[in-house]
């Protein structure tokens, strides 16, 4: 079982926008969630097609994540034969670009069942810039890991280790921000506080 | 159902309704702003927007009488939260003219320095104020906030601990410290904070649940068993409807089952998780039936149904 050195990652507009909207809904807190998708048939690319937002106030505690992963795994497998392929995290502070211990630990939880797992950390400064410029790259830092080593950042400016599938993502995101779409997204913790709230967010992009 | 932010569902609904109404020209901006102050929620964007519209309307402003100054303060803070330094500066300037020797205004000036990122200056300003007001709670809080904003977690922990030695009844501070300890994965210390909170306010289910969450995250048979007790206490406190607590009992039941594999299972101890599983199932049937299969599957995997 080798490392993920040759694996590429592709994230869909839907997944990326949900991730950003989740972070925008809780600007003064850390948020996290899981990445959903599949390994391409030629095993070169992990295709992240959706995300499941999980927490906004308990990112370092196990219960919400554990329940979310259990139910999310089941749901996405049935819905579209998708697996849990990673974890995302957005730090509390604007200029904090470090993958903290809690995020690493949560990433490990996912890595156990999917060795090509990606951990995505939202890069707030980059996000501001990319939305303005309608840029092509996603505003996230990509981390992968080997069984022996911890999470390491992969790629940097200009590499194509992680690509946004649809080039229009930031243009669409700018529209959504203008219309305050982040108010409509519910995460798993919102569901725990009121189970009529749906963490699948089926009507978000309708 | 109680939200995790401490607001009841009806309070949150009332807040949203007023915000919506005032935003769409239906009046009630002042009621909304008062409610935000009373409930101590953080909604800087609407507060800034609606507050400014009142302040820029001379008729509306004169109706406020002496409350006008409270509004300037509220808008100044919201402006800083939205990084609108100019508006904040204007409001504080007006307050300074009206109350030139006020400590309250001096604190706002300190906050403005913080908002501009002028940490050293803000630090100095607060140090001066503390000389004449050594036990001013709000200035102590600003010092903590600044350390937090600069990402200096060690300093935050130090300041918060010092703060709590003086202001030991500040429950929000205990909670804040607990949450920071959790983010640092210092679970034992976080647990201690929650123990203080539970002692001080035994009827607040949120503390019992957070404590249990920390114990569950720490893991180990003893912690699972204690966590189960506290989730159970929260269930009792909330009349059996708190979903987090119900799930918590189930998770603990599952974890204890796993660790006790092969050993004699205590019949009595598996009663509660089974009951919680039943209640959870009923709740989902009522409020989120399309999710019920997922929950049922999960409960099966925990060997609870």
From TrEMBL, chain A:
Residues 9-141 form the MPN domain. GO terms for cellular component: EMC complex. It comes from the Eukaryota. Coiled coil: none annotated. Pfam families: UPF0172 (PF03665). Belongs to the EMC8/EMC9 family. This is ER membrane protein complex subunit 8/9. The lineage of its organism: Eukaryota, Viridiplantae, Streptophyta, Embryophyta, Tracheophyta.
Automatic annotation (TrEMBL), chain B:
InterPro entries: EMC2-like (IPR039856), TPR-like_helical_dom_sf (IPR011990), TPR_EMC2 (IPR055217). This is ER membrane protein complex subunit 2. It comes from Carex littledalei. Its main location: endoplasmic reticulum. Component of the ER membrane protein complex (EMC). Pfam families: TPR_EMC2. SUPFAM superfamilies: TPR-like. GO terms for cellular component: EMC complex. Belongs to the EMC2 family. The keyword Transmembrane helix does not apply. Residues 106-215 form the EMC2 TPR-like domain. Keywords: Endoplasmic reticulum, Membrane, Repeat, TPR repeat. It is a peripheral membrane protein. Gene3D superfamilies: Tetratricopeptide repeat domain. PANTHER family: TETRATRICOPEPTIDE REPEAT PROTEIN (PTHR12760).
């Amino acid at each position: 079982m080798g490392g993920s050195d040759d694996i590429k990652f592709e994230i869909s507009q839907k997944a990326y926008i949900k991730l950003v909207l989740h972070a925008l809904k809780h600007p003064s807190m850390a948020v996290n969630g899981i990445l959903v998708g599949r390994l391409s048939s030629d095993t070169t690319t992990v295709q992240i097609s959706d995300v499941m937002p999980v927490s906004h106030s308990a990112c370092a505690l196990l219960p919400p994540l554990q329940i979310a992963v259990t139910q999310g795994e089941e749901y996405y497998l049935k819905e579209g034969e998708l697996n849990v392929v990673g974890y995302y995290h957005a730090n509390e502070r604007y200029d904090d670009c470090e993958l903290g211990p809690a995020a690493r630990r949560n990433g490990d939880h996912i890595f156990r069942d999917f060795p090509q797992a990606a951990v995505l950390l939202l890069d707030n400064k980059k996000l501001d810039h990319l939305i303005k410029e309608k840029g092509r790259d996603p505003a996230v830092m990509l981390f992968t890991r080997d069984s022996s080593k911890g999470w390491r950042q992969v790629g940097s400016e200009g590499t194509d280790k992680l690509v946004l599938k649809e080039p229009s993502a930031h243009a669409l995101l700018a529209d959504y921000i203008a219309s305050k779409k982040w108010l409509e997204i519910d995460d798993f913790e919102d569901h725990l506080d009121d189970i009529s709230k749906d963490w699948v967010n089926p009507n978000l992009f309708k | 159902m109680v939200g995790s932010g401490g607001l009841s569902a009806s309070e949150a609904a009332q807040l949203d309704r007023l915000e919506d109404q005032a935003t769409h020209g239906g009046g009630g901006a002042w009621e909304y702003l008062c409610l935000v102050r009373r409930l101590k929620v953080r909604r800087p964007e609407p507060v800034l927007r609606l507050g400014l519209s009142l302040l820029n309307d001379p008729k509306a402003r004169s109706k406020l009488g002496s409350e006008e100054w409270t509004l300037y303060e509220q808008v100044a803070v919201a402006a800083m939260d939205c990084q609108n330094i100019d508006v904040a500066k204007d409001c504080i300037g007006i307050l300074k003219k009206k109350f030139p020797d006020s400590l309250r205004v001096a604190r706002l000036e300190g906050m403005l320095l913080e908002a501009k990122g002028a940490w050293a200056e803000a630090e100095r300003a607060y140090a001066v104020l503390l000389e004449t007001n050594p036990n001013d709670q709000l200035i102590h809080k600003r010092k903590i906030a600044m350390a937090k904003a600069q990402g200096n977690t060690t300093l935050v922990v130090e300041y918060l601990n010092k703060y709590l030695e003086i202001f030991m009844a500040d429950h929000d501070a205990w909670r804040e410290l607990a949450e920071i300890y959790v983010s640092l994965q210092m679970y034992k210390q976080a647990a201690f904070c929650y123990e203080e909170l539970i002692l001080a306010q035994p009827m607040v289910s949120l503390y019992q649940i957070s404590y249990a969450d920390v114990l569950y995250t720490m893991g180990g048979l003893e912690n699972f068993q204690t966590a189960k007790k506290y989730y159970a206490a929260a269930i009792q406190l909330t009349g059996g409807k708190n979903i987090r607590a119900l799930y918590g009992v189930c998770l603990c039941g599952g974890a204890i089952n796993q660790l006790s594999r092969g050993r004699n299972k205590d019949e009595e101890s598996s009663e509660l998780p089974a009951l919680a599983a039943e209640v959870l199932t009923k709740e989902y049937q009522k409020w989120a039936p399309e999710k019920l299969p997922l929950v049922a599957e999960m409960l099966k995997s925990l060997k609870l149904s």
